[in-house]
Amino acid sequence: MTSGAGLTQEEAFARIRLLRSPNVGPVTYRQLIARFATASAALEALPELAGRSGKAYRIAPERRVHDEIAAVRKTGARYLFHDSQDYPGLLGETESAPPILTVRGDPAIASRPCVAIVGARNASAGAVKLARDFAHGLAEAGHVVVSGLARGIDGAAHEGALGAGESGSTIGVIASGIDIAYPPEHARLQDRIAEEGLLIAEQPPGVEPLARHFPARNRIIAGLASGTLVVEAAPRSGSLITARLAGEMGREVMAVPGSPLDARAHGCNQLIRDGAVLVQSPDDVIELLSGFDGTPRSVVREAGPTLDQTAAQPVSEEPAATGIADLLTTAPIAVDELIRQSGASASAVQLALLELEIAGRLVRHAAGRVSLG
């Protein structure tokens, strides 16, 4: 079941149970582990933490976790924990990295240079061919192609990488459980990726790909790669979400320009206007990512909050969660701004936010922002 040095079966079980408990997302999970050292201790503390915000709390039932583990084994998948040696390194550097993944295939593939290729589901024939050609060329040059197994550009990218022979490799990240193929026509492609590359799921087995799961899937795609290439995308598409998440992570963002007469090209053209690097061939991507040191040429990102704003602020006693809640609205705000306005210590504010999230009253957003749920 486990993939992590020194991790007991009991602690592995507790970690899965903790993450499957209500209102425990990736950030909250990490904070709980940091505060209580083990998942077992965090589970014991959850009801009391939630109770401080006035709500009863029930952790995930043990039976549910036993059933999940059995389903993972049945599919031939295994768990990959955040502190495992073969957990993808670049993904692990991101703020919202999934604490637990289920995988089929070889996780070592993710340690090689990775580039994400994403784009429209209803892509034009020309864009599909372009995505396939880009992926083929990048795979031949030793890059692992990451995408989301969707129709259109994603599927073409996976196929192009797999068609590069022995040097070709690809990672598919899905928005469902590891045992569900979506779209259904990609079932064979999904199995081939699991056999020849790496298939990754964050959702438990049996979970269908709901709309809210796709942005979460997209941040994994962006997190695995040093750069994200958008081949064709309409405005407000999931591909642009992936690109902007990559920018916020400090990764390279690239786009293939298209005709202004085609609405499917407007997203890429806008990305280029917003600071993405224009690329026209696999060689452009290879040159851009060669020796990538974490300082991208692209500027598709939001300005992050500065920490020095809090340096001169007096530190008060730990605020109650209700006090921090009074500073929040449904509009996202940076945690650092909450620290500045409350005058409390960073650890005190994080604890208050932790209590609010476990109680189901807090929503976490990209770039370290939070809002009332």
TrEMBL record:
Gene3D superfamilies: 3.40.50.450, Winged helix-like DNA-binding domain superfamily/Winged helix DNA-binding domain (1.10.10.10). Pfam families: DNA_processg_A, DprA_N, WHD_DprA. Residues 310-368 form the DprA winged helix domain. One of its GO terms (biological process) is DNA-mediated transformation. It comes from the Bacteria. Residues 79-289 form the Smf/DprA SLOG domain. InterPro entries: DprA, DprA_WH, DrpA_SLOG, WH-like_DNA-bd_sf. Belongs to the DprA/Smf family. This is DNA processing protein DprA.
